Amino acid sequence: MTREVDAVPCLLMRGGTSKGAYFLAEDLPADPAARDELLLRVMGGPDERQIDGLGGAHPLTSKVAVVSRSADPWSDVDYLFLQVAVGAREVSGRQNCGNLLAGIGPFAVERGLVPAGEEETSVRIRMVNTGHRATATFPTPGGRVRYTGDAEISGVPGTAAPVVIEFPPSANPLLPTGNVRDEIDGVAVTCVDNGMPTVLIEAAALKVTGYESPAELEADRALADRLRTIRLVAGRLMGLGDVSHATVPKPTLLAPPREGGAVTTRTFLPVRCHPAIGVLGAAGVAAGLRIEGSVGAELAVLDAAGDRVRVEHPSGFMDIESSLGTAPDGLPRAGRTAVVRTARKIFDGTVFPAPAGTAPPPPPTRGGRP
């Protein structure tokens, strides 16, 4: 009989524009079902307020990172992302999270998984959910992680030390459907995967401007119905199967830029509208805009002289370095992708889960690997 876990070492961090609980894999149950049941109690689910746990009653603040040393010769650590649902008994591993990714390198140093350099440290990360890889580089003067600095990102107050995240080109196709454009429910879409399955849609095609606030878009039930239909069909076309209980692919509405960037975006999670944009979602937008004939290519304002793409979102912008190459089949493929993010350690200590039995166990994790 498995002993109930009543205390777990935990580091709560802000990563990018999200916040999550970071754990060593060895501190959690090895059985995925037991692990997910524990994480629901840690985060306060399935209560919509998450009043009895660490969660903040929003998908962006109900996230978990599980980290371990990697057996992959390329990588230093493995990072499993788990989305703990708000108001539901579900823990999902069917996607990456590029925001919590910003905290993985610092966490690995904090927990002794990777030795710190005297000035800066680079940590090679394998994202278990999809097999994608990334390298995070951040300051470690004197062999300790420095969180303070002058890097500023939209959606986060103040400044912090920069975390430079670079993604090597993925072996997965940038266009999972094999098409630059598909038509779903009478709407032209471009399905891209540059680390996160994303569906690019021109906002005007769904009778919105793309400049509405997240709250206004969430209140539009007709829009929600259209997006749900498009997302379910796109999931099948992208080889993801039935995505009715998954958070990917993420629909992203595109509109011409307003603040000097390349494009304006509104991303859905998949129902709530993101108050900013995720790192990997922005990477997909940036790559998608560079594909000739894609949805958004004609309305985007791109710098022909460089790789930087400024993606506008509801709370500001995100700069992505993005380039394309050509796959053997002649289709475009992702080249270099890099972004500057920040992370901050909020607390390091012990979390005490709510007692077992306060919430029914969740269904099995969807996607990901233990």
TrEMBL record:
Keyword presence, Ubl conjugation: no
Source taxon at top rank: Bacteria
GO molecular function list: isomerase activity
Pro residues: bias regions: 358-370
Top-tier EC class: isomerase
Region: Disordered, residue numbers: 351-370
Enzyme Commission number(s): 5.3.2.8
Alphabetically ordered keywords of this record: Isomerase
Isomerase found in the keyword field: yes
Family per similarity comment: Belongs to the PrpF family.
Name assigned to this protein: 4-oxalomesaconate tautomerase
